[in-house]
Structure formats: structure tokens, C-alpha cells
């Protein structure tokens, strides 16, 4: 009997495996993760690998994109130090996606937009490194003071963010029925009313989820049921103060639109001299 060829324990091709292209300082600084969800190096910079062919294909799978699974799988592949991307604070998301794209395709990215008023297509080149630096240097303020209360907040994690976004999307679809003449007006009104209430409850729930604790009269309340009950019965001014703070913190960790400019000939045809160009992270085109 011929001797069975012994399996090689080490793959001789291993030295050709992809290597980290950049190292990322997370905007959160590693806060808001549990100890087993992030393997933070001593220098506080996580290695970022370029995408594989499989990763690129994941971003072309509609269902996986909608429920967030594709994003989670690609983050696991490209930034393995983030062990559980579902629990990643949402303030890290934009920076993580930019870093993965930068590691895969380089620092420059072309965005195609339509010029306002004239509708011409125009390309702009943006520097992803500059965008990334602006996010890394942002600071998260987790404390809100309101009258005699001290409120501690946190960013939603990616799992919470995705579920809330999907619920909002489903409820907002109801408003597309306004032009459906096959549905009686009274039924439309009922559907709209129910959907509006669900969206209102969802918004309040998101704010409640973001509150870690409320300190008042020397006592700290951190029970989520009690916090939710409080949010359901508190005055509008308190709710608005917390919502404004959460919105400001979210915006600080989001990429701002940049100013697109037009030529004199475009302006003569009615185009503005400058206009805002939003930078969106729709994976189907951001990673194209």
C-alpha cells in the first residue's frame, strides 16, 4: 500500500495572504464595547485588511445589505479585532466603512452627482483620508445636565441601529399608499394614523435606549424599564433636550457634505456657483 501523503500543517501560500493596509484609531476610542467584543492593541489602532472577492460579492447581495448581515460579515473579515460588529457603537460605523474602502481601493474616491437646476452629471474626487481624520478627531459627550438631573447617554450599537432603521423604513412605506386609488380614504387614514403612532413610539424608544442612567436626588436610575416609563411620562422639554444632544453627537461622527463647484458655463445655464454634495455610505455604490 502506498504511504498516505501527510497533510501539510502550514499552507505554503500563507505568506501571500492579504496583509493590513492601514491602521485605524476608532472614533469611540474603544469605549462602549464589552471586553470580549473588541481586541484593542496597545497602540489603540486596529489593523484594517483590504476586502476579498467574497467580501465584494456580499455587498452585492440585497437581502444581506438590508438586514445589515453583509456589513457585519465584511467588518469581521477586514477588521477581525472587532469581534462582534453587531455590538459596535454606531459612532464607529462611518470611520470603519471608510477605512475598509481606503484599504481596498486607495485614498481617492470619485462621486458622481447631478448639478442642481441643470441636471448635468458631474464627477468630484474626494480624499478619504481627510474624511477619516475628521471622524477620528471627534469627541463624544456622554453627559447631559437638565435642571437637577445628570443623564448619561451612549450611542446605539449597530444591531440596535439596524433594527430601528428597518422598522422606520417599514412604517414609512405606508406613506406610499397615498396615491393608491384602490384603497378607500378611510382605510388610508387609519393606516397613516397607526403608522404615525408607531414611528412616534419608535423615536421615543430610540431615545430611551440611548440613556444609560439618570442621576437625581443622589440616586442613580439605570433600570431600562424605569427609564422607559419615565420617558413616556416626562414633559416635552426634557425629551427634546435629550433628543437634541443625541442628534448633535451623532452628527459629530457623521461625514458632512462637501461643497461642489460649477464652471462659468454651467452657471450661465442656471447652475449655482456652489452646492452641497452628500457623501452616502450605500454599500452598493460606496464599495463599487
In a few lines, what is going on in this structure?
InterPro entries: Baseplate_phage_T4-like. This protein has 288 residues and is α+β, with helices and mostly antiparallel strands. The chain has helices at residues 53-58, 62-66, 69-78, 93-105, 128-136, 158-172, 185-210, 224-233, 236-252, 264-268, 283-286, and strands at residues 22-24, 46-48, 108-114, 121-127, 143-146, 149-153, 211-216, 219-221, 258-261, 274-277.
- By oligomeric state, this entry counts as single chain
Could you give the distance between the termini?
53 Å
Which shape, going by the Cα principal axes?
globular
Strand content: 15-25%
Radius of gyration: 24 Å
Order of helices and strands: EEHHHHEEHEEHHEEHHEHEH
What is the percent of helical residues? Answer: 40-55%
Q: Strand tally, please? A: 10
Major β-sheet strand ordering:
5-6-7-8
InterPro entries: Baseplate_phage_T4-like
Pfam family, one: T4_baseplate
Task: Describe this protein with a few key phrases.
288 residues; 2 domains; 4-stranded antiparallel beta sheet; 11 helices; 16% strand
Amino acid at each position: 500500500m502506498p504511504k498516505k501523503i501527510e497533510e501539510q500543517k502550514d499552507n505554503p501560500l500563507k505568506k501571500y495572504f492579504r496583509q493590513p493596509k492601514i491602521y485605524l484609531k476608532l472614533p469611540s476610542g474603544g469605549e462602549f464595547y464589552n471586553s470580549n467584543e473588541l481586541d484593542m492593541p496597545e497602540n489603540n489602532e486596529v489593523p484594517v485588511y483590504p476586502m476579498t472577492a467574497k467580501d465584494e460579492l456580499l455587498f452585492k447581495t440585497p437581502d444581506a445589505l438590508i438586514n445589515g448581515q453583509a456589513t457585519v460579515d465584511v467588518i469581521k473579515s477586514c477588521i477581525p479585532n472587532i469581534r462582534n460588529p453587531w455590538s459596535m457603537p454606531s459612532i464607529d460605523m462611518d470611520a470603519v466603512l471608510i477605512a475598509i474602502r481606503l484599504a481596498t481601493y486607495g485614498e481617492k474616491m470619485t462621486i458622481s452627482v447631478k448639478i442642481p437646476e441643470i441636471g448635468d452629471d458631474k464627477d468630484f474626487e474626494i480624499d478619504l483620508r481627510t474624511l477619516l481624520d475628521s471622524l477620528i478627531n471627534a469627541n463624544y459627550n456622554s453627559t447631559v445636565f437638565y435642571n437637577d438631573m445628570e443623564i448619561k447617554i451612549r450611542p446605539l450599537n449597530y444591531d440596535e441601529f439596524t433594527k430601528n432603521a428597518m422598522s422606520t423604513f417599514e412604517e414609512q412605506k405606508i406613506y406610499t399608499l397615498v396615491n393608491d386609488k384602490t384603497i378607500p380614504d378611510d382605510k388610508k387614514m387609519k393606516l397613516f394614523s397607526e403608522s404615525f403612532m408607531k414611528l412616534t413610539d419608535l423615536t421615543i424608544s430610540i431615545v430611551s435606549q440611548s440613556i444609560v442612567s439618570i442621576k437625581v436626588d443622589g440616586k442613580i436610575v439605570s433600570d431600562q424599564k424605569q427609564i422607559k416609563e419615565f420617558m413616556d411620562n416626562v414633559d416635552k422639554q426634557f425629551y427634546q433636550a435629550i433628543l437634541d444632544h443625541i442628534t448633535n453627537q451623532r452628527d459629530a461622527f457623521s461625514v458632512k457634505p462637501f461643497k461642489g463647484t460649477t464652471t462659468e458655463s454651467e452657471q450661465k445655464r442656471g447652475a449655482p456657483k456652489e452646492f452641497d454634495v452628500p457623501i452616502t455610505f450605500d454599500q452598493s455604490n460606496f464599495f463599487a
